[in-house]
Design brief:
The protein is mainly alpha-helical and about 325 residues long. It contains 13 helices and no strands. Helices cover about 80% and strands about 0% of the residues.
């Protein structure tokens, strides 16, 4: 294709489309019909140029022109409270439910690793000695020591904000870094389980494991579940890079990436709730059974939310991705 001849032949149509787009809402009925026809023709022109004679400057100009025309023709849809309600009753729980084959095994294996590290530290005094001096370890594990006072060392409100920020950052890193074949996600998980295992091992060796569990379980059940969901989703995203399935890698990553972004927003709310429990319930004067009961209840409600609402939405075809009307159009590809 002779690009100069093509541009000369269609330049007037592109200029006319630009003129109509500048008119905005002042178009007559006939002009609106003309705009739609010019939009369709210009989109065809762009496709021909991209396939036959790709020119960066012309392609960029027509891409912008087609995007503006498409926005004018299809209109823009504003997010509403109905969208937010749909996200939390269908999109988010369905995305968590659909990724359960990734985050449930991740949770079980991670907990096993944390427990194994804790047993190894508790059963080997030489490992404890490598962690810290005996006086330091006693200060950490004694009644009223560092492990107990950690949850009441700051005002509850600021502590909740700090906890939520740290946990949300960890979850977001798992989701984002999953695209790097999931390897950074495994490292983040190991670091979390190592910290948990050290606490279990040191407090267990001091005969105060029950005290530690009484402090961890109220908020830790929901908090760790959210981290495991983020990690499992990140690993799934990493596997999509390796095996995108019948879709192109670009399309598969875009779909999984959008679902992961939605997952991040939903998990931020879950981690906010666990942060509230950690700041206000964990250090409270409630009996241990009551504090643990609140944690178990929060965890049970989340799992019911995922399996009931999420399972129902997933069976109805919900994936956690954007609705079809909000997604960009894509060209068909060969199988």
């Amino acid at each position: 294709m002779d690009l100069d001849v093509f541009v000369t032949a269609h330049q007037a149509e592109w200029q006319r489309l630009e003129h109509l787009l500048r008119r905005g809402r002042k178009l007559t009925g006939a002009e609106a019909d003309e705009l739609i026809a010019l939009y369709q023709r210009t989109a065809t022109h762009l496709s021909l140029i991209q396939s036959s004679a790709p020119d960066p400057m012309l392609t960029g100009r027509l891409t912008q022109l087609v995007a503006r025309a498409r926005a004018t023709v299809t209109g823009t849809r504003r997010a509403t409270w109905r969208d937010a309600a749909r996200f939390f009753t269908e999109g988010f729980p369905a995305a968590v439910y659909r990724s359960r084959r990734w985050w449930v095994p991740t949770a079980l294996l991670s907990i096993a690793v944390g427990a194994l590290i804790g047993w190894w530290i508790a059963a080997h005094p030489e490992v404890q000695a490598a962690i810290g001096a005996p006086t330091e370890l006693r200060e950490m594990t004694r009644p009223g020591g560092a492990y107990e006072t950690y949850y009441s060392s700051h005002p509850a409100t600021s502590f909740a904000a700090q906890v939520w920020t740290n946990n949300a950052r960890a979850a977001a890193m798992c989701l984002v870094l999953g695209a790097f074949l999931g390897l950074p996600v495994l490292w983040i998980l190991f670091q979390n389980m190592l910290n948990l295992g050290v606490a279990i091992g040191l407090m267990g060796s001091a005969g105060r494991l029950d005290t530690l569990l009484g402090l961890l379980l109220p908020h830790g059940l929901l908090e760790l579940t959210a981290v495991f969901v983020a990690a499992g989703t990140g690993l799934r995203l990493g596997w999509t890079v390796i095996d995108p399935g019948p879709r192109t890698r670009r399309v598969a990553l875009a779909e999984q990436g959008r679902a992961a972004l939605g997952m991040a927003m939903g998990l931020a709310v879950v981690l906010f709730l666990s942060g509230i429990i950690e700041a206000f319930v964990t250090p409270s004067g409630l009996p241990t059974w009551a504090r643990i009961g609140i944690g178990v209840l929060a965890e049970a409600l989340f799992l019911v939310y995922v399996w009931v609402l999420g399972g129902r939405a997933a069976k109805a075809g919900e994936t956690g991705d954007l609705q079809a009307a909000d997604q960009s159009s894509s060209l068909p590809v060969a199988a």
